[in-house]
Amino acid sequence: MFLSPACVAPKGSNQLPEHPTQESILGAANPHNKLTPEAFAQYSSTVRSTAAYGVTSLLAQHSLTAIIGPTDSRMAGIAAAAGFPIGNVPLGFADGMNGRAIGLSVIAGPGDENNILRVMAAWEISLPGAREAPKLLAGWGK
Fold first, then answer.
1. 58-113 pLDDT, tens per residue?
2. Is residue 36 packed enough to be buried (19+ CB in 10 Å), middle (13-18) or exposed (0-12)?
3. How far from 104 is each of 4, 13, 69, 110, 116, CA to CA, in Å?
4. ∠25-12-37 over CA atoms, to 5°?
5. φ and ψ of 33, to 5 deg
6. What pLDDT is attached to residue 136?
7. Beta bridge partners of 86
8. Do 94 and 131 meet the contact criterion of CB atoms below 8 Å apart?
9. Fewer CB within a 10 Å sphere, N or C end of the chain?
10. 10-22 as b/e, with b when 16 or more CB fall inside 10 Å?
11. What pLDDT does residue 141 have?
12. By C-alpha distance, which of 96, 111, 123 is closest to 52?
């Protein structure tokens, strides 16, 4: 078994499971450990329910309609694991970082894409022209 039983929250529980231990990671790397389809389904379900519980709890606890954070964070992985919608708001290009594109990610609850679009539209209205490419990239490929 890859994860200890303590890593899986009891079904119907509002408690988050424990973090896996180093032994769980080493066990997963062992080629002799075979993950059965049933165990895979159980772990997939645990990941999805844990991510969904975390996002919905945060939204509810703070009366939020969306969660906003940097695009280069773990937000996309959390949204994907939970099966929740996520949008990216391009902010522009970082000066002094070779024109690296920067942005924000917006997560909303299940079926709540309209709130993501509202956040993105408000951002666009508030900061028009914020996404101009740096001079080095302007005209690239023309």
1. 999 999 999 999 988 899 999 999 999 999 988 877 776 666 778 899 999 999 99
2. exposed
3. 35, 32, 5, 19, 11
4. 45
5. -80, 125
6. 59
7. 107
8. no
9. C
10. eeeeeeebeeeee
11. 61
12. 111
Q: Hunting for tokens 């180093």 — which residue is that?
A: 22
Structure tokens that stand for 133 in this block: 């490419």
Tokens of 54: 């975390």
Residue 69 has what DSSP assignment?
E
Q: Which sequence spans correspond to the domains of the chain?
A: 1-64, 65-142
Return the number of other C-beta atoms located less than 10 Å from residue 44's C-beta: 11
**Which tokens belong to 92?**
């522009």
